[in-house]
Amino acid sequence: MVIIVFLSRFPGLHQNTRRMPTFFHGERRYFKNQIKPNQSARKPAALPLQESEAPPMDKERIFVVVLGTDQRGLIARISTLLYDHDCNIEDLQQKVMDGTFVMTMLADVTGCKQGIKELRTALEKQGEEMGLTIMVQNEAVLKAMQRV
Question: Which helix (H) or strand (E) holds 104?
Fold first, then answer.
């Protein structure tokens, strides 16, 4: 097998353009660092996490879903309630769709002062005061439902 390497210019660029090596392999021509004829254009799948990188299994997390009319201070009041119960908000997504406020929170409740039942009761009470529907679901329950 013979591979010929020479420098070529890209058509349409200025004369002082940097030269790149071009390779001829059989009847196909390709530039260095481009996808070769027998390579896939897809990126390799993510490698599995090492044991030290995996999230600790003793972490207890909940999903908090909030629905209702958009008003000022929604996120502040709900996140303050979670803070007062020593919960950590790990992820939050919110959107207002046609005047309806929709929010999903993922919170770590491992260090929660009280149990999840008391936290759920406090969140539901807060929702009633603000005219919202607040639903709390344990992450482990959702994952178990996905496996079925």
Answer: strand 100-108
